Each structure stands twice: as structure tokens, then as C-alpha cells.
Amino acid sequence: MNYEIKQQDKFKYLEAGEGEPLLLLHGLFGAMSNFQDLIEYFKTSYKVVVPILPLFELDIFHTSVGGLEKHVQHFIETLGYDKIHLLGNSLGGHVALVHVLKHPEKIKSLILTGSSGLFENGMGDSYPKRGDYEWIKKKTQLTFFDPATASKELIDEVFEITNSRIKVIKIIALAKSAIRNNLGEELNQIKVPTCLIWGNNDIITPPFVGREFNRLIPNSELHFIDKCGHAPMMEVPDEFNRVLEDFLQRQKQTAEIPA
Question: Fewer beta carbons within 10 Å, N or C terminal of the chain?
Fold first, then answer.
């Protein structure tokens, strides 16, 4: 994926295509590369926007779900986006949820995939071990139904992150913030159309989490994808894009119906 990274003020981001903004929020170990197939598919009909979340740049007191949400809010204000289709994976989904609860006015629809906010296993039964490449490899592979989806490049990226003491401290701070920030009692306040796309084999936010989001968010629909783990847009991009396109098309048709 070879896109220019733009910068405005303190914000670094990718922007491709024209149309209503489709704004993508990556997770704790995520990056723009997680959305490669999605960007290529939707840039012909939407303005696809991927801000680089400052997972490791915020001071420790603001290294939290709330701190990331404030960054996203300031980003949206600075760039002037409106009528946004907001999509988040994993921790990015959690940030998207908090944003919609605080600032729903510019959000047209919400898409969550493997989102935290109710329950998540995180890295599994322990925190990252610095310098243990095999441990990092196994934990990264657990993100997917098919371990082969975890390329060496992806494993190397995660290994580089977890090999930094300060980054590990911030990973732990963000993980603990996500666990503390349970949104179960607030989700009924979300009014925008919401699409939940879940891997049937997700062991980080298992299928029951998707069902609970579906139960608690009033105007939501739930789609399961078989043989798929925690990052459907990476592991089964064709199926993910098909479900997402159908949802977005229906939002467009609803908007075109005269009152």
C-alpha cells in the first residue's frame, strides 16, 4: 500500500477518494496496513480517511480510551469532516463508541468489528514479553483463525512495539483503560445505524460480545463471518467489504427517501 501520509497541525492521516467520509480507526497493535483491502475497495465511492492514532505519543495520564477519543474529535473538527461513516476495529471500535456517545452530530453510521467496550481477552493470559519473538509470534497469530494470516511483516511490527519499554507501559495503560471503560449501560443511547461485523472464531472479543452489542445498541445489525478471527477486514476482506458495502448502500438509499 503506497499512499501519501498527510499532516495537518499535529495530525497524521491517510486520505483517498472522494465522497462521504469513511473514517477508519485501528486497534492497539494496528496500523494503516490493516485496512489495505478496505481502502482499495471503497476509495472509488467514499473519501476513505485513516488517522494515525497516537497510541504511544500521548502522555501517560492521557494514554487511555478517552485520550484517544479526544484526539479523534479534534481531528474531525480540524479537517472539517461531516456525515461520517465511522468504523473501528478492536480498541479503535471502543474509541468510535465513546466518540458517538459524546459527539453523535457528525456521525452518519457506525461500523464495529471485534470491538472492545464490553469484554475482551486482550493479549490473552499475560502481557507482552519483551524480547521473546516466538511468544509475540504466537500471540499475533491468535488474532486470526488462520495463523498464516499473520505475516512476518506484521509479527515484526508487533515485536518492535513490544520490545520498547515505554511502549509496553503504554500498551498496558491502554488495555487497562479499555477494561475499566465498560460501556454496557450507555450503549442504548446510540441512535445512529450500526453495523456489527464479527468473526465467528474471534477469541479476543468472542461471538457472544457481538451478540451483546447487538442487543444493547438499538438500531444495530449483526453479521458473523465463518473461519474468521478478530480482524475480519484483514483475514476475509472480500466478505467483509461485501457486508459493509451492502450496509452503506442501504444508508444511502434511506437518506434519499423524501420525508
Answer: C
